[in-house]
Amino acid sequence: MDWFQTVVLALIQGLTEFLPISSSAHLILPSQLLGWEDQGLAFDVGVHVGTLAAVVYYFRQDIWSMIKAFFASFKGENSADGRIAWFVIFATVPALIFGFLINDWIDAYGRSILVIAGTTLIFGALLWYADSTRKYTGNASSGATAFPCFQSATAIRTISAALGYTSFSIWVT
Questions:
Q1: Predicted structure pTM score
Q2: pLDDT tens profile 4-17
Q3: Tell me: the pLDDT tens digits for 88-111?
Q4: Cβ-count burial of 49 within 10 angstroms (0-12 exposed, 13-18 middle, 19+ buried)?
């Protein structure tokens, strides 16, 4: 992979990460559509780590507050930051398990244009359904227990986490 491809893919990652589209899919598509050599999973992970570092830096004070509140919860202190920290942990475990269970399938088929197209259509339909059947309750905590299971689907790299989270959030509130 040459420098031009590296810069293009890094820009694509940075521009698409926070949109309700799959940045992972957008890293896969250029190589398949432009005839470039597939940059591979290691490169994809590298640019995602860069995005993660930027997000952690931006939210460093909030993250530090949640970490402190998480440990304070063991002493019986109850706070919003502590509950959020527990929800993050609770939401991550099913995604890790699901990702582990379907890892071989992801490796075999996850970089396919057909999988990208199919998951985009499915989650687009879910977003439409969530929006068209929504009955606003104002109670986001009503989905707190189901959210981790829904989040697990985003272990398939071509599913946009933002689109999935948006669809689910609209549906449960």
A1: 0.68
A2: 999 998 888 888 87
A3: 888 788 778 877 888 787 777 777
A4: exposed
- DSSP letter for each residue of the chain: --HHHHHHHHHHHHHHTTTTS-HHHHHHHHHHHHTPPP-HHHHHHHHHHHHHHHHHHHTHHHHHHHHHHHHHHTTT---HHHHHHHHHHHHHHHHHHHHHHTHHHHHHHTT-HHHHHHHHHHHHHHHHHHHHS----S-GGGGTTTHHHHHHGGGSTTS-HHHHHHHHHHHH-
Nearest of 169, 152, 151, 162 to residue 55 by alpha carbon = 162
